[in-house]
Amino acid sequence: MTRKTIPQHGTDWKALGTELEELGRGDVDWRRGRTAVYVFNAGEDVLQVAKEAYALFQSENALGPAAFPSLKRMEAEVVSMGLDLLHGAEGACGNMTSGGSESIFLAVKACREAARAAGRDTTGGEIVLPRSAHPAFDKAAQVLDLCTVRVPVAEDLRADPQAMADAIGDRTLMLVGSAPCFPYGLIDPIEALGEITASRGVWLHVDACVGGYFAPFARMNGVDVPPFDFSVPGVHSISADLHKYGYAAKGASTLFHRTEAQRGFQVFDFDDWPAGGMTTPTAAGTRPGGAVASAWAVMHYLGIEGYRQKARAVTETRERMLHEISNIDGLSPVGTPQLGLFAFGSDTLDIYAVWGRLLQRGWFTGLLTEPKAIHLMLSPAHAEFADEYLADLRDAVAEVAATGATAADTRARYS
Ligand SMILES: Cc1ncc(COP(=O)(O)O)c(C=O)c1O
């Protein structure tokens, strides 16, 4: 691309709005359910609430709680509602962050600083995590000069507690479990991991970025969700994203700690420069007021009843889709997911070729590499489009079966 310069003269908004809409036309058609990753669509009304609340506070900055007590209060209330949902006891606390990766980064930072404060040498410190855990931990480890030790999952594709216990060594700082993990949508055995960390003096972080604002509502609807939050004694911290199944505008996650002392290690505090003290609870400086307001508004708009209804739409759609997919010759589900994520593969067809045929029909979904599979993270809005997807899937499978097509060059990429 030739270098673009800022135009000499401005353009009116009407023309720009049209140009932006034009630019968006090449994007995946998520409003018609064509993607099952990246976007969480709980319906036009929820999108509207998230958008309008964002717009009301889009210029306000959560870096300045003294200037914007409104945002301070909203963040405190969002954190409080999240803690209530995740069984945070007296003393539990947290912050809003920009997303799952920042929440995870801060949990790892807090863990490392706590270890240092306790006199440990954290050089080469390790995070022990199941192979299925999100790469945000590796990103955090890179920045914080730590290492990750990925442990193979058990046969049921969940974390293997014994193997994780065996992987703990002198340098281990943190153990990780997911609720659920991104690849398979499965909740790791957090209780078993909690027993290990409690007896070994290791920090346990639960990555509930996907499930934090979903699994509790699925449980209220009767899904047999195992304990995964602060109800498990060994759990130190939990990441839970509001911009996923919380349905807030993007840029909103929560990081929760069991104690304020723990949270203290997350905070950056500095005053050795010419402009006084700078204390920030997160990695960011400026924090978008819009993201805070959007999360606050959507939580109040939906309420527990609304979230339960959305969770029901998702789990029922997942069940229906998996049932239909199991009846398609050659396809089989990966593991036994309980929430909104699932994957399916094939022993007889090149599943990536099937994925390619679906992409040609406008379906932009994820892929797994272990095992090779098509991966979907459903939104409530998918209930309406599942039948269209299944019809195209049947066609795609028939095409690949008839031609023996392969797709050696298709790889899972989230970038
Ligand atoms: C389980 C899990 N953890 C963490 C993340 C990272 O979240 P974010 O993309 O908001 O940084 C994701 C993203 O999909 C995820 O699925």
Describe this structure in words.
The protein has 12 helices and 13 strands. It starts with 12 loop residues before the first helix and ends in a 12-residue tail after the last helix. It folds into 2 domains: 52-299, Aspartate Aminotransferase, domain 2; 303-397, Aspartate Aminotransferase, domain 1 (Alpha-Beta Complex). The chain has 415 residues and is α/β, with parallel strands linked by helices. The protein has a 7-stranded mixed beta sheet, sandwiched between helices. Strands 10-11-13-12 form a 4-stranded antiparallel beta sheet. A two-stranded antiparallel sheet has the order 8-9. The protein has helices at residues 13-24, 44-56, 69-85, 100-117, 136-143, 161-167, 190-200, 215-220, 260-264, 289-326, 351-360, 386-403; strands at 93-97, 126-130, 147-151, 172-178, 203-207, 237-241, 253-257, 268-270, 278-280, 331-333, 341-346, 366-369, 372-377. Pyridoxal-5'-phosphate is lined by residues 99-101, 134, 136, 178, 181-182, 207, 209-210, 241, 253.
